[in-house]
Protein backbone atom coordinates (compact mmCIF):
# COMPACT_ATOMS: atom_id res chain seq x y z
CA UNK A 1 0.00 0.00 0.00
CA UNK A 2 1.34 3.44 -0.98
CA UNK A 3 1.18 5.96 1.86
CA UNK A 4 0.03 9.53 1.22
CA UNK A 5 2.08 12.55 2.41
CA UNK A 6 -0.44 13.02 5.21
CA UNK A 7 -0.11 9.45 6.39
CA UNK A 8 3.70 9.75 6.35
CA UNK A 9 3.42 12.91 8.47
CA UNK A 10 1.18 11.09 10.98
CA UNK A 11 3.60 8.23 11.07
CA UNK A 12 6.48 10.59 11.91
CA UNK A 13 4.44 12.14 14.74
CA UNK A 14 3.06 8.92 16.16
CA UNK A 15 5.46 9.13 19.06
CA UNK A 16 3.45 12.12 20.30
CA UNK A 17 0.02 11.26 18.90
CA UNK A 18 -0.60 7.85 20.48
CA UNK A 19 0.40 8.78 24.04
CA UNK A 20 -1.96 11.77 23.87
CA UNK A 21 -4.83 9.63 22.61
CA UNK A 22 -4.05 6.99 25.21
CA UNK A 23 -4.12 9.53 28.00
CA UNK A 24 -7.43 10.97 26.77
CA UNK A 25 -8.98 7.50 26.67
CA UNK A 26 -7.69 6.80 30.19
CA UNK A 27 -9.23 10.02 31.54
CA UNK A 28 -12.52 9.21 29.82
CA UNK A 29 -12.54 5.71 31.31
CA UNK A 30 -11.76 6.96 34.80
CA UNK A 31 -14.51 9.58 34.58
CA UNK A 32 -17.11 7.03 33.49
CA UNK A 33 -16.06 4.38 35.97
CA UNK A 34 -15.06 6.42 39.01
CA UNK A 35 -16.51 9.87 38.51
CA UNK A 36 -18.52 9.61 41.72
CA UNK A 37 -15.34 9.01 43.72
CA UNK A 38 -14.02 12.39 42.60
CA UNK A 39 -17.19 14.21 43.49
CA UNK A 40 -18.29 15.08 39.94
CA UNK A 41 -21.67 16.71 40.37
CA UNK A 42 -24.68 18.07 38.57
CA UNK A 43 -24.34 21.63 39.83
CA UNK A 44 -24.49 23.06 36.32
CA UNK A 45 -27.91 21.57 35.57
CA UNK A 46 -30.47 24.16 34.55
CA UNK A 47 -33.47 22.63 36.33
CA UNK A 48 -34.41 24.55 39.46
CA UNK A 49 -36.67 22.97 42.06
CA UNK A 50 -38.39 24.63 45.02
CA UNK A 51 -39.53 22.93 48.20
CA UNK A 52 -43.12 21.73 48.18
CA UNK A 53 -45.10 23.36 50.99
CA UNK A 54 -48.49 22.75 52.55
CA UNK A 55 -51.24 25.19 53.39
CA UNK A 56 -54.33 23.53 54.83
CA UNK A 57 -55.57 20.77 52.54
CA UNK A 58 -53.34 21.64 49.59
CA UNK A 59 -49.72 21.45 48.49
CA UNK A 60 -48.05 24.47 46.93
CA UNK A 61 -44.95 25.04 44.80
CA UNK A 62 -43.83 28.63 44.28
CA UNK A 63 -47.22 29.85 45.43
CA UNK A 64 -49.21 27.65 43.02
CA UNK A 65 -51.35 24.70 44.15
CA UNK A 66 -49.79 21.34 43.31
CA UNK A 67 -51.80 18.16 42.61
CA UNK A 68 -49.69 15.10 41.96
CA UNK A 69 -49.74 12.47 39.24
CA UNK A 70 -47.13 10.08 40.61
CA UNK A 71 -45.88 6.52 40.60
CA UNK A 72 -43.96 3.91 42.58
CA UNK A 73 -40.63 2.42 41.52
CA UNK A 74 -39.44 1.06 44.85
CA UNK A 75 -36.36 -0.53 43.24
CA UNK A 76 -34.39 2.56 42.25
CA UNK A 77 -31.66 2.54 44.93
CA UNK A 78 -31.21 -1.22 44.96
CA UNK A 79 -30.97 -1.35 41.18
CA UNK A 80 -28.54 1.58 40.97
CA UNK A 81 -25.87 -0.17 43.07
CA UNK A 82 -24.73 -1.98 39.90
CA UNK A 83 -23.38 0.63 37.48
CA UNK A 84 -24.56 -1.39 34.48
CA UNK A 85 -28.17 -0.96 35.68
CA UNK A 86 -28.07 2.81 35.97
CA UNK A 87 -29.42 3.47 32.47
CA UNK A 88 -32.69 1.94 33.74
CA UNK A 89 -32.82 4.51 36.53
CA UNK A 90 -32.42 7.27 33.98
CA UNK A 91 -34.91 5.52 31.71
CA UNK A 92 -37.79 5.33 34.20
CA UNK A 93 -37.25 8.90 35.42
CA UNK A 94 -37.11 10.26 31.88
CA UNK A 95 -40.22 8.26 30.98
CA UNK A 96 -42.05 9.63 34.03
CA UNK A 97 -41.14 13.17 33.08
CA UNK A 98 -42.31 12.61 29.51
CA UNK A 99 -45.68 11.41 30.83
CA UNK A 100 -46.06 14.58 32.85
CA UNK A 101 -45.58 12.76 36.16
CA UNK A 102 -44.11 14.79 38.99
CA UNK A 103 -43.28 12.57 42.00
CA UNK A 104 -41.86 9.06 42.33
CA UNK A 105 -42.17 7.09 45.58
CA UNK A 106 -39.21 4.80 46.28
CA UNK A 107 -37.33 3.06 49.09
CA UNK A 108 -34.51 4.82 50.94
CA UNK A 109 -33.86 1.71 53.02
CA UNK A 110 -32.39 -1.76 52.71
CA UNK A 111 -31.62 -3.28 56.09
CA UNK A 112 -29.28 -6.26 56.19
CA UNK A 113 -28.98 -8.79 53.39
CA UNK A 114 -27.95 -8.25 49.77
CA UNK A 115 -27.07 -4.68 48.75
CA UNK A 116 -27.95 -3.46 52.24
CA UNK A 117 -27.69 0.27 52.83
CA UNK A 118 -27.58 -0.37 56.59
CA UNK A 119 -25.46 -3.47 57.13
CA UNK A 120 -26.01 -3.48 60.89
CA UNK A 121 -27.00 -0.76 63.38
CA UNK A 122 -24.92 2.31 62.56
CA UNK A 123 -22.90 0.57 59.80
CA UNK A 124 -23.61 1.74 56.26
CA UNK A 125 -22.37 0.58 52.88
CA UNK A 126 -20.98 3.66 51.12
CA UNK A 127 -21.42 1.92 47.78
CA UNK A 128 -25.20 1.72 48.33
CA UNK A 129 -25.38 5.27 49.68
CA UNK A 130 -23.75 6.42 46.44
CA UNK A 131 -26.48 4.58 44.55
CA UNK A 132 -29.12 6.57 46.47
CA UNK A 133 -27.14 9.74 45.78
CA UNK A 134 -27.27 8.87 42.09
CA UNK A 135 -31.04 8.30 42.17
CA UNK A 136 -31.66 11.69 43.78
CA UNK A 137 -29.29 13.49 41.40
CA UNK A 138 -30.83 11.77 38.38
CA UNK A 139 -34.33 12.68 39.56
CA UNK A 140 -33.23 16.29 39.91
CA UNK A 141 -31.88 16.31 36.35
CA UNK A 142 -35.28 15.16 35.06
CA UNK A 143 -37.39 17.49 37.20
CA UNK A 144 -38.87 14.60 39.21
CA UNK A 145 -39.34 14.83 42.95
CA UNK A 146 -39.01 11.81 45.24
CA UNK A 147 -41.02 10.56 48.19
CA UNK A 148 -38.52 8.53 50.22
CA UNK A 149 -39.67 5.80 52.59
CA UNK A 150 -37.42 5.10 55.58
CA UNK A 151 -38.30 1.55 56.70
CA UNK A 152 -40.60 -1.34 55.84
CA UNK A 153 -43.24 -2.91 58.04
CA UNK A 154 -42.98 -5.94 55.74
CA UNK A 155 -40.08 -8.40 55.48
CA UNK A 156 -38.84 -7.24 52.08
CA UNK A 157 -35.52 -5.38 52.23
CA UNK A 158 -35.10 -6.12 55.94
CA UNK A 159 -37.69 -3.88 57.55
CA UNK A 160 -38.67 -3.95 61.17
CA UNK A 161 -37.90 -7.69 61.39
CA UNK A 162 -34.23 -7.02 60.68
CA UNK A 163 -34.08 -4.39 63.44
CA UNK A 164 -35.48 -6.93 65.90
CA UNK A 165 -32.87 -9.50 64.84
CA UNK A 166 -30.10 -6.97 65.40
CA UNK A 167 -31.34 -6.28 68.91
CA UNK A 168 -31.58 -9.99 69.70
CA UNK A 169 -27.97 -10.47 68.61
CA UNK A 170 -26.98 -7.85 71.19
CA UNK A 171 -28.79 -9.82 73.89
CA UNK A 172 -31.83 -7.57 74.18
CA UNK A 173 -34.76 -9.55 75.59
CA UNK A 174 -37.67 -9.16 73.19
CA UNK A 175 -41.07 -10.71 72.59
CA UNK A 176 -41.53 -13.21 69.78
CA UNK A 177 -43.23 -10.56 67.65
CA UNK A 178 -41.39 -8.15 65.40
CA UNK A 179 -43.68 -5.47 66.82
CA UNK A 180 -40.87 -4.97 69.34
CA UNK A 181 -39.61 -2.58 66.70
CA UNK A 182 -42.19 -0.06 67.84
CA UNK A 183 -41.58 -0.10 71.60
CA UNK A 184 -38.12 -1.41 72.46
CA UNK A 185 -35.79 1.49 73.47
CA UNK A 186 -32.72 -0.10 71.85
CA UNK A 187 -34.48 -0.52 68.52
CA UNK A 188 -35.87 3.00 68.67
CA UNK A 189 -32.29 4.21 69.11
CA UNK A 190 -31.19 2.15 66.09
CA UNK A 191 -33.89 3.70 63.94
CA UNK A 192 -33.24 7.26 65.09
CA UNK A 193 -29.56 6.85 64.26
CA UNK A 194 -30.52 5.59 60.81
CA UNK A 195 -32.90 8.49 60.21
CA UNK A 196 -30.31 11.06 61.26
CA UNK A 197 -27.66 9.48 59.01
CA UNK A 198 -29.96 9.55 55.98
CA UNK A 199 -31.35 13.05 56.51
CA UNK A 200 -27.89 14.58 57.01
CA UNK A 201 -26.22 12.66 54.18
CA UNK A 202 -24.36 14.93 51.72
CA UNK A 203 -24.98 13.82 48.15
CA UNK A 204 -21.62 13.21 46.44
CA UNK A 205 -23.02 14.32 43.07
CA UNK A 206 -24.85 17.50 44.05
CA UNK A 207 -23.02 18.47 47.23
CA UNK A 208 -26.40 18.99 48.95
CA UNK A 209 -27.45 17.36 52.21
CA UNK A 210 -30.66 15.40 51.80
CA UNK A 211 -32.46 17.56 54.32
CA UNK A 212 -31.65 20.63 52.20
CA UNK A 213 -32.56 19.14 48.81
CA UNK A 214 -35.93 20.18 47.27
CA UNK A 215 -35.68 17.17 44.94
CA UNK A 216 -37.07 15.24 47.91
CA UNK A 217 -40.80 15.90 48.06
CA UNK A 218 -41.38 14.21 51.42
CA UNK A 219 -40.24 11.58 53.89
CA UNK A 220 -42.38 8.58 54.75
CA UNK A 221 -41.74 7.10 58.19
CA UNK A 222 -42.66 3.49 57.40
CA UNK A 223 -44.33 1.56 54.60
CA UNK A 224 -47.73 0.17 55.71
CA UNK A 225 -47.27 0.14 59.51
CA UNK A 226 -49.19 -2.42 61.52
CA UNK A 227 -48.82 -3.33 65.21
CA UNK A 228 -51.15 -6.28 65.61
CA UNK A 229 -49.97 -7.13 69.14
CA UNK A 230 -51.63 -3.90 70.32
CA UNK A 231 -54.93 -3.47 68.46
CA UNK A 232 -55.76 -0.49 70.69
CA UNK A 233 -53.36 1.50 68.54
CA UNK A 234 -51.53 3.08 71.48
CA UNK A 235 -48.13 1.53 70.72
CA UNK A 236 -48.03 2.60 67.10
CA UNK A 237 -49.37 6.05 67.94
CA UNK A 238 -46.61 6.58 70.49
CA UNK A 239 -43.96 5.47 67.96
CA UNK A 240 -45.31 7.80 65.26
CA UNK A 241 -45.36 10.72 67.66
CA UNK A 242 -41.78 10.13 68.82
CA UNK A 243 -40.32 9.48 65.36
CA UNK A 244 -42.14 12.28 63.56
CA UNK A 245 -40.98 14.72 66.24
CA UNK A 246 -37.42 13.44 65.81
CA UNK A 247 -37.52 13.85 62.01
CA UNK A 248 -38.83 17.41 62.35
CA UNK A 249 -36.06 18.23 64.84
CA UNK A 250 -33.53 17.51 62.08
CA UNK A 251 -35.44 18.58 58.98
CA UNK A 252 -38.18 21.23 58.97
CA UNK A 253 -37.96 21.90 55.24
CA UNK A 254 -39.53 18.69 54.01
CA UNK A 255 -43.03 17.33 54.34
CA UNK A 256 -43.62 14.18 56.39
CA UNK A 257 -46.21 11.41 56.29
CA UNK A 258 -46.65 8.14 58.17
CA UNK A 259 -47.09 5.66 55.29
CA UNK A 260 -50.52 4.32 56.31
CA UNK A 261 -52.81 2.01 54.34
CA UNK A 262 -55.83 4.01 55.50
CA UNK A 263 -57.62 1.56 57.81
CA UNK A 264 -59.84 2.93 60.57
CA UNK A 265 -58.99 1.68 64.08
CA UNK A 266 -61.06 0.44 66.98
CA UNK A 267 -61.77 3.94 68.27
CA UNK A 268 -62.97 5.25 64.93
CA UNK A 269 -66.70 5.54 64.22
CA UNK A 270 -65.88 4.61 60.62
CA UNK A 271 -64.40 1.22 61.52
CA UNK A 272 -67.60 -0.68 60.71
CA UNK A 273 -68.86 1.40 57.78
CA UNK A 274 -65.76 2.26 55.74
CA UNK A 275 -63.20 -0.51 56.40
CA UNK A 276 -63.07 -3.39 53.91
CA UNK A 277 -63.82 -6.02 56.61
CA UNK A 278 -63.81 -6.41 60.40
CA UNK A 279 -60.11 -7.40 60.61
CA UNK A 280 -58.99 -3.97 59.42
CA UNK A 281 -59.85 -2.36 62.78
CA UNK A 282 -57.53 -4.73 64.68
CA UNK A 283 -54.21 -3.97 62.96
CA UNK A 284 -53.03 -1.42 65.51
CA UNK A 285 -53.24 1.50 63.08
CA UNK A 286 -55.89 4.23 62.86
CA UNK A 287 -56.04 6.54 59.89
CA UNK A 288 -57.52 9.59 61.63
CA UNK A 289 -55.68 9.30 64.92
CA UNK A 290 -52.27 8.55 63.34
CA UNK A 291 -52.60 11.38 60.81
CA UNK A 292 -53.87 14.03 63.22
CA UNK A 293 -50.49 14.79 64.78
CA UNK A 294 -49.11 18.27 64.11
CA UNK A 295 -45.80 16.75 63.00
CA UNK A 296 -47.54 14.86 60.17
CA UNK A 297 -48.09 17.06 57.11
CA UNK A 298 -50.31 14.84 55.00
CA UNK A 299 -52.08 11.48 55.18
CA UNK A 300 -51.46 8.45 52.99
CA UNK A 301 -53.89 5.77 51.80
CA UNK A 302 -53.44 2.58 49.76
CA UNK A 303 -56.05 0.96 47.50
CA UNK A 304 -55.92 -2.82 46.99
CA UNK A 305 -59.52 -4.08 46.91
CA UNK A 306 -58.55 -7.39 45.31
CA UNK A 307 -56.17 -8.16 48.23
CA UNK A 308 -58.72 -7.11 50.83
CA UNK A 309 -61.62 -9.10 49.32
CA UNK A 310 -61.40 -12.59 47.92
CA UNK A 311 -65.05 -13.34 47.26
CA UNK A 312 -66.18 -10.21 45.42
CA UNK A 313 -66.48 -9.66 41.69
CA UNK A 314 -64.60 -6.87 39.96
CA UNK A 315 -67.60 -4.51 39.89
CA UNK A 316 -68.06 -4.80 43.66
CA UNK A 317 -64.35 -4.13 44.24
CA UNK A 318 -64.56 -1.07 42.03
CA UNK A 319 -67.53 0.27 44.01
CA UNK A 320 -65.69 -0.26 47.28
CA UNK A 321 -62.58 1.52 45.99
CA UNK A 322 -64.69 4.55 44.99
CA UNK A 323 -66.34 4.64 48.42
CA UNK A 324 -62.90 4.21 50.08
CA UNK A 325 -61.45 7.20 48.24
CA UNK A 326 -64.45 9.41 48.92
CA UNK A 327 -64.37 8.57 52.64
CA UNK A 328 -60.72 9.59 52.99
CA UNK A 329 -61.04 12.76 50.94
CA UNK A 330 -63.91 13.77 53.23
CA UNK A 331 -61.63 13.05 56.21
CA UNK A 332 -59.01 15.35 54.74
CA UNK A 333 -61.54 18.13 54.14
CA UNK A 334 -63.45 17.92 57.42
CA UNK A 335 -61.40 16.10 60.09
CA UNK A 336 -57.71 16.38 59.35
CA UNK A 337 -57.61 19.57 57.28
CA UNK A 338 -54.64 18.07 55.48
CA UNK A 339 -53.91 16.73 51.98
CA UNK A 340 -54.74 13.08 51.31
CA UNK A 341 -52.38 11.11 49.09
CA UNK A 342 -53.28 7.74 47.58
CA UNK A 343 -49.66 6.62 47.59
CA UNK A 344 -50.28 3.10 46.27
CA UNK A 345 -53.05 1.71 44.09
CA UNK A 346 -53.10 -1.33 41.88
CA UNK A 347 -55.10 -4.24 40.51
CA UNK A 348 -53.64 -7.74 40.53
CA UNK A 349 -53.33 -9.73 37.32
CA UNK A 350 -53.70 -12.94 39.33
CA UNK A 351 -57.43 -12.51 39.91
CA UNK A 352 -59.42 -15.33 38.35
CA UNK A 353 -61.55 -12.94 36.31
CA UNK A 354 -58.71 -10.54 35.44
CA UNK A 355 -58.73 -8.78 32.08
CA UNK A 356 -56.32 -5.96 31.12
CA UNK A 357 -59.27 -3.63 30.46
CA UNK A 358 -60.21 -3.89 34.15
CA UNK A 359 -56.96 -2.22 35.10
CA UNK A 360 -57.71 0.72 32.86
CA UNK A 361 -61.16 1.10 34.41
CA UNK A 362 -59.70 0.94 37.92
CA UNK A 363 -56.93 3.41 37.08
CA UNK A 364 -59.42 5.78 35.47
CA UNK A 365 -61.66 5.71 38.53
CA UNK A 366 -58.74 6.65 40.82
CA UNK A 367 -57.49 9.39 38.51
CA UNK A 368 -60.99 10.82 38.05
CA UNK A 369 -61.37 11.23 41.80
CA UNK A 370 -58.09 13.13 41.98
CA UNK A 371 -59.06 15.32 39.05
CA UNK A 372 -62.44 16.18 40.61
CA UNK A 373 -60.68 16.97 43.87
CA UNK A 374 -58.21 19.24 42.06
CA UNK A 375 -61.02 20.96 40.20
CA UNK A 376 -62.79 21.74 43.47
CA UNK A 377 -59.61 22.51 45.48
CA UNK A 378 -60.32 19.61 47.82
CA UNK A 379 -57.91 17.50 49.87
CA UNK A 380 -57.46 14.58 47.45
CA UNK A 381 -53.99 15.79 46.47
CA UNK A 382 -52.51 13.01 44.38
CA UNK A 383 -52.18 9.36 43.43
CA UNK A 384 -49.28 6.95 42.82
CA UNK A 385 -49.51 3.87 40.60
CA UNK A 386 -48.05 0.67 41.99
CA UNK A 387 -45.73 0.00 40.24
CA UNK A 388 -43.80 1.08 37.10
CA UNK A 389 -40.91 -0.83 35.57
CA UNK A 390 -38.83 -0.74 32.42
CA UNK A 391 -38.10 -3.64 30.08
CA UNK A 392 -35.99 -6.52 31.38
CA UNK A 393 -36.92 -6.18 35.07
CA UNK A 394 -38.95 -9.34 35.62
CA UNK A 395 -37.22 -10.05 38.94
CA UNK A 396 -38.60 -6.80 40.38
CA UNK A 397 -42.12 -7.34 39.10
CA UNK A 398 -45.15 -8.50 41.04
CA UNK A 399 -48.78 -9.06 40.07
CA UNK A 400 -49.34 -5.28 39.93
CA UNK A 401 -46.35 -4.06 37.93
CA UNK A 402 -46.66 -2.51 34.49
CA UNK A 403 -44.50 -1.01 31.78
CA UNK A 404 -46.92 1.84 31.02
CA UNK A 405 -45.92 2.51 27.41
CA UNK A 406 -46.55 -1.12 26.42
CA UNK A 407 -50.32 -0.60 26.58
CA UNK A 408 -51.42 2.50 24.62
CA UNK A 409 -54.75 2.87 26.45
CA UNK A 410 -52.97 2.93 29.83
CA UNK A 411 -50.34 5.37 28.59
CA UNK A 412 -53.07 7.66 27.30
CA UNK A 413 -54.89 7.58 30.65
CA UNK A 414 -51.74 8.65 32.45
CA UNK A 415 -50.76 11.45 30.11
CA UNK A 416 -54.32 12.79 29.83
CA UNK A 417 -54.49 13.00 33.63
CA UNK A 418 -51.26 15.05 33.61
CA UNK A 419 -52.88 17.39 31.07
CA UNK A 420 -56.08 17.71 33.11
CA UNK A 421 -54.21 18.64 36.26
CA UNK A 422 -52.10 21.13 34.32
CA UNK A 423 -55.21 22.78 32.87
CA UNK A 424 -56.67 23.23 36.35
CA UNK A 425 -53.63 24.44 38.26
CA UNK A 426 -50.99 25.36 35.71
CA UNK A 427 -47.78 23.79 34.54
CA UNK A 428 -44.62 23.48 36.60
CA UNK A 429 -41.53 24.82 34.81
CA UNK A 430 -40.05 21.30 34.90
CA UNK A 431 -43.11 19.94 33.04
CA UNK A 432 -43.31 22.53 30.29
CA UNK A 433 -41.04 20.85 27.76
CA UNK A 434 -42.93 17.56 27.83
CA UNK A 435 -46.51 18.72 28.39
CA UNK A 436 -46.46 21.03 25.38
CA UNK A 437 -45.89 17.95 23.19
CA UNK A 438 -48.76 15.69 24.21
CA UNK A 439 -51.14 18.37 25.51
CA UNK A 440 -50.85 20.40 22.31
CA UNK A 441 -54.54 19.97 21.47
CA UNK A 442 -55.65 21.53 24.76
CA UNK A 443 -55.00 24.93 26.31
CA UNK A 444 -52.60 24.87 29.26
Automatic annotation (TrEMBL):
Q: What are the boundaries of the signal sequence?
A: none
The domain of life is Eukaryota
Q: What class of enzyme is it?
A: hydrolase
Q: Which residues cross the membrane?
A: 16-40
Which EC number(s) does the record attach to this protein?
A: 3.2.1.78
List each copy of the Glycoside hydrolase family domain by range.
50-388
Keyword Coiled coil present in the record's keywords: the answer is: no
InterPro entries in alphabetical order: GH, Glyco_hydro_5, MAN-like
The UniProt catalytic activity note for this protein reads: Random hydrolysis of (1->4)-beta-D-mannosidic linkages in mannans, galactomannans and glucomannans
Q: Which UniProt keywords apply?
A: Glycosidase, Hydrolase, Membrane, Transmembrane, Transmembrane helix
The record's similarity note reads: Belongs to the glycosyl hydrolase 5 (cellulase A) family.
Q: Which PANTHER family did the record assign?
A: MANNAN ENDO-1,4-BETA-MANNOSIDASE 2, PTHR31451
Task: Please identify the protein, giving its name as recorded.
Answer: mannan endo-1,4-beta-mannosidase
Q: Organism source for this protein?
A: Datura stramonium
Corresponding gene?
A: MAN2_6
Amino acid sequence: MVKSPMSRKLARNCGLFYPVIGFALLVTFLYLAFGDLWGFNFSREKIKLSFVERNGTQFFVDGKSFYINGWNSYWLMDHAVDYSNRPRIRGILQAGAKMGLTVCRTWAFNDGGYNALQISPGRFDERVFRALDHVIAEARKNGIRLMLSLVNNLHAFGGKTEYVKWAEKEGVALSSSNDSFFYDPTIRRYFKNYVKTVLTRKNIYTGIEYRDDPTIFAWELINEPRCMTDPSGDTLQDWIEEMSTFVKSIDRKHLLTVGLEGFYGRRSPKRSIANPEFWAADLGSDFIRNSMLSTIDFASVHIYPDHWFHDKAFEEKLKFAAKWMLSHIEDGDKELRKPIMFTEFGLSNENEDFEPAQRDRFYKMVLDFIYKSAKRNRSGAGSFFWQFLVEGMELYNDDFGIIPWERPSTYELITEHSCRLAREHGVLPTQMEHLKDFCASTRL
